[in-house]
Every structure is written in structure tokens, then in C-alpha cells.
Known about the structure:
With 328 residues, the chain is of the alpha+beta class.
Amino acid sequence: MISLAHKLLKWYDEHGRDLPWRVKxxxxxxxxxxxxxxxxxxxxxxxxxxxxxxxxxxxxxxIESLVQATQEDVYQYWQGxxxxxxxxxxxxxxxxxxxxxxxxxxxxxxxxxKGIGAYTASSFLALAFNQPETVIDGNVMRIIARLYALxxxxxxxxxxxxxxxxxxxxxxxxxxxxxxxxxxxxxxxxPKNPQCLLCPWHDDCLSCGREDVENIxxxxxxxxxxxxxxxxxxxxxxxxxxxxLRTEKGLLSGLxxxxxxxxxxxxxxxxxxxxxxxVFTHFKLTLNIMVLQTDNANCDGFFVPIDKLxxxxxxxxxxxxxxTLESA
Length: 328
Ligand code: SF4
């Protein structure tokens, strides 16, 4: 029987991506190439990394040339990739390797370098030295959970996934196997709309054809934070209503609003016992609607006739408040 690893490797031979830091058929002959690409790929997609990698390697073609460069020079070639601590760590790691006179080849040694965690260590050892390391990131977790139809929440099955992923790893060609499983996750067994018909494991996979395949593995949704505050409908003696322009950076900036805050702004305001609730991406906001009669609100805003309110762009949250105006 053909093993799963063998099927994957065969697929990789034909369909694996050609990437500037990749050679097929074993370890990369130049570990420095793998080192640079692994640092760049932390928190960044392959597509974004490619032009930066090519520019960087032209400027710093050897580990010695990187060590000789100043930090500013390295930063300049990292510009646009973000997360500059990675550039700093790569520079320091290169210095450590050059001082040691050789690339580390054991897990313990690799983990002593700067900016390298468990995942990067496995990936580096597999790709640069063809060591039988199992790379496990979100892509691999997803593939293994689907392959064995592990439908429980991800945080309950991580250990099981790890064991299964290790058993699957090809020990004869771990470098290609690591690249292959990454490519499978990036191009075939994608989070949404996996291409099961094109998958080398479609005869073996217990989730192939399942309608709920996109929900495997199950990810726990974090409960949204709840915030509570007060929104003030302030009317003057002319019956006009008080508005202000939100100028703070971020949420709702540039829109008009009734004064609102998580703290109480006016002690004399009366609580209408009505509320508006709005769910933002990261939190749920409940505003208690307060009313106040005054000609001097003193809240960086201005009074406008109620029938002119529609001329002022407002957020959905404030539009919900407007709806309560009639009865307020
Ligand atoms: S058959 Fe489908 S679900 Fe299973 S590993 Fe392949 S792409 Fe993923």
C-alpha cells in the first residue's frame, strides 16, 4: 500500500510551488538561504516575502556579508516587511553563527539563537539539514484534523494532532515532506473551500466530501467584551439637539454623534430607561439613553434643529439612538 507520505511527496514533485528559497529533492545546499526565508516568513505570507527576499539576498548574499552590515543597512532592506525585531534577531543570529564558525544542527543549539521558536527550529532543521523534524503550524493542524476527522475544538486536540503529524512525517525526505505539507495547506486544504478533488489524500481523508469540512478543526470563538456607557440627548430651549464631531483617531472618527462615554458626563441628566446595543468587531456596547435640558452643554459640539439631523453623517450606533429620539 502506498503510504500517505509517499502520496504527498509524489504530489509535491508535480505540483509543489517553486519558491526562490526552495530546492526540491532534499536539504537546501545553503542553510543561510533557509535562515533568511524563515525569519521573513514569520507572520508574513509567501507572496509578500518573495520580492523582499530577492532584494535582501542580492544585497546580503552570504551570512558574512550580513554580519558585516550595520543594523541600519539591514533595516533598510527589511523596510516594508514590518516586525523589525525579526530583522534585528536575524542580524544577531547571523553574528552568533559566524562567531561559532558553523551552522547549528541540533534542536537545542538552534533554539539558543535569537528570535527562533519551536516552529522555526523544526522548519530550519528539516529544510536546511533534512532532519526528521515535524513542522506544525496552523496549516498542518488543519490538514491533520481534517485527515482524521478530529472534530473537537482545536485546543482539546492539539496533542493528538501533534502525535499524528509526527507519525506521518517522512523520515527519508523530511525536507521535501515539510515543504509539501505546507504547500498542501496553502493551495489545496485551505481554510475555506478546500480542493478535495485535487488533494493527494482524498482517498484517505475522513473529511473529504463532508459538508462541514470548513469547520474542522473547530475554533473556539472568544466571547466578545462587553462595554456599557451613556449617550446624551441634550435639547436646548429652542428644541434643538446637541451634536459633536468625533475627531479622536480610530473607532467612528469623522462621524457626528451625540455625546457619549463609558463614564457619566452629566449628573443632572435623566435616565430614560431605554438602551441601544451595538456589536462591534471586538466588543459589544450597550448605551443607556439619557436626556438633558440645557442651553449650555459645553461638550465641544453645537445645537442643530432635529429635522436637519440627516445632514450629519452618523454611525449605525448613533442612527439607532436617533430612532429613539421621538419617544425620548
Ligand atoms: S481531502 Fe480535502 S479535507 Fe482532506 S486533506 Fe485533502 S483537501 Fe483537506
